[in-house]
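Lab notes, practical 5.
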Amino acid sequence: MKAIFGVIRLDGAALDPAQLEQMERGLASDFYQPDGFCSSGEAGLGASAPVDASGSREEGVLEGANGLLLAASARLINRQELARDLSLRLGDLAVLSDAGLILAAWQRWGAGCVHRLEGDWHFALWDKSRRRLFLARDTHGTASLYYRRTPEH
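Output from the prediction step:
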């Protein structure tokens, strides 16, 4: 599973992308490799992926409409059911990552999307328009979830 990270500036100041770069470098090791990050104004989210000898990589950091940022690690086992409920075509499903499905589910059902996700997953989503951070993980809780709040962040 990916390690996800991020910074949200609660004081309204713009986020310095160097903070995300530093976090990404801090996670780099023999076990994790940078997977990218995205930022928008006062917030940024990113992910580091386990080193995978096969070279395959699952997209984990996405920017959605209306200022949504998503960092996710997911292995969804109900992709076809989600696609049907989201009215997606099978061709669309074939090219959509699990993170992309989570983002589409969020855009349709909001926080209630977590009740529709089956598998091994965790994600962080920043909703810029609502200034809301949402963190979630599957009910099995195999991924640890930590956060820290400071006066600025």
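Observations recorded by the TA: The mean pLDDT is 88. Helices lie at 17-27, 79-85, 90-95, 98-109.
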